[in-house]
Design brief:
By secondary structure, this protein is an alpha+beta fold. The chain has ten helices and 13 strands. The protein folds into two domains: 146 residues, 60s Ribosomal Protein L30, Chain: A; 182 residues, Alpha-Beta Complex (Phosphoribosyl-aminoimidazole Synthetase, Chain A, domain 2), CATH 3.90.650.10. The radius of gyration is 21 Å and the shape is globular. The structure holds magnesium ion.
Length: 350
């Protein structure tokens, strides 16, 4: 496919755009018929069940073109969907992508977006098998449907947490929320824009924090390991802040929880950039969204096994609390008093 930057999206047309996208797709033996027919044909592995999830990303609600470059936007559009399959212990396999594109969006933007989307796909062995394109009069609209598979007894739901289980999270919390604060300052001209650097940590940590927001890395390997070992009773990905997301586990499991404030894992860059503040902004770590880490519960007898198997995946894991039998999730300070959290995650309808 020629990649002439002078080719306007308008001249290319829908079918031209689809073949341009299809040309970059890497396939997999599970895909029997991919892009190009009326429907895709795929084969589930023996004994596995299908997992399906869909997400919409709307310009100025989920992302802003002022700070989200097309490459990382493409990566993130698929990453957030992969994260949902991972949170069920599923193996991500196939994706459908639908785009409503403003007619004045440069073709280069679409090319870079697709480059990012397909890079995230191939890093996670996901195949793009179809979708739809049309023009939008209300900004860029991205819709991703993802499918995965897993053996029935390895699928992990939100509903299995038991009283006295430990509550765990992977990685660190609050980086993406702090990254959002930094990116808002950047758009205001206060912080310099970082170039794309993959997962590397560089400079004064600003780029690490902003990358955590703009280019999240779904915890597929960690989630699959946890699913295979059957150590976990419930699992969710942290998209709306750990307090809200653990709240979903608690609600669906008919339990409550106690989270220990000082055990919330914070990155070195998070600590560095909040060091001058009068108090550690735990609100960001508890209620800030978009970390895309895993939150899960497991019987206390599994502590060592969990630490060992996450170490093998190269993933940090921290025990942050205990499942309680009575409903309600509380955050407790080291002195035993209750920590009040003002905001609970992001809600589109408030
Ligand atoms: Mg989720």
């Amino acid at each position: 496919m020629p990649h002439s930057s002078s080719t306007a999206l308008f001249n290319l047309g829908e079918f031209g755009l689809i073949s341009r996208i299809a040309a970059g797709v890497r396939t997999h033996e599970s895909v029997i018929t991919g892009i190009g027919d009326d429907a895709a044909v795929t084969a589930l592995s023996a004994g596995m069940q299908l997992l399906t999830s869909t997400d919409m990303l709307l310009e100025d609600i989920h992302f802003r073109l002022a700070w989200h470059d097309p490459y990382r936007l493409g990566r993130k559009s698929l990453a957030v969907s992969i994260s949902d399959i991972a949170a069920m212990g599923g193996i991500p396999r196939w994706a459908l992508l639908s785009l409503a594109i403003p007619s004045d969006l440069p073709l280069d933007f679409v090319d870079d977006f697709m480059r990012g989307f397909l890079a995230m796909a191939s890093e996670n062995r996901v195949v793009l098998i179809g979708g739809d394109t049309c023009s939008s009069r209300a900004g860029l609209i991205i819709s991703v449907t993802i499918m995965g598979e897993q053996l029935p007894d390895r699928i992990v739901r939100r509903s299995g947490a038991l009283p006295d289980d430990d509550i765990w999270v992977t990685g660190t919390l609050g980086d993406a929320a702090l990254g959002l604060k930094l990116v808002e300052l950047e758009v205001g001209g206060v912080v310099k824009s970082p170039p794309f650097q993959g997962e590397g940590q560089g400079g004064d940590g600003v780029d690490f924090l902003i990358n955590r927001l703009l280019d999240p890395n779904p915890r597929v390997a960690a989630a699959l390991t946890l699913a295979e070992t059957k150590l976990v009773t419930a699992m969710i990905d942290v998209s709306d802040g750990v307090l809200a997301d653990y709240g979903h586990i608690a609600e669906q499991s008919g339990v409550g929880g106690c989270i220990f404030l000082e055990d919330i894992p914070l990155s070195g860059d998070f600590r560095r950039h909040t060091a001058g503040l009068p108090a550690v902004p735990y609100q960001l770590a508890l209620s800030g969204g978009e970390d895309y880490e895993l939150c899960f519960t497991s019987h206390r007898s599994n502590r060592k096994k969990i630490i060992d198997c996450m170490k093998k995946c190269g993933i940090e894991v921290t025990r942050i609390g205990i499942v309680a039998s009575l409903p309600g999730v509380t955050v407790v300070k080291p002195d035993g008093s209750k920590y009040c959290v003002q905001v609970e995650g992001f809600n589109h309808f408030t």
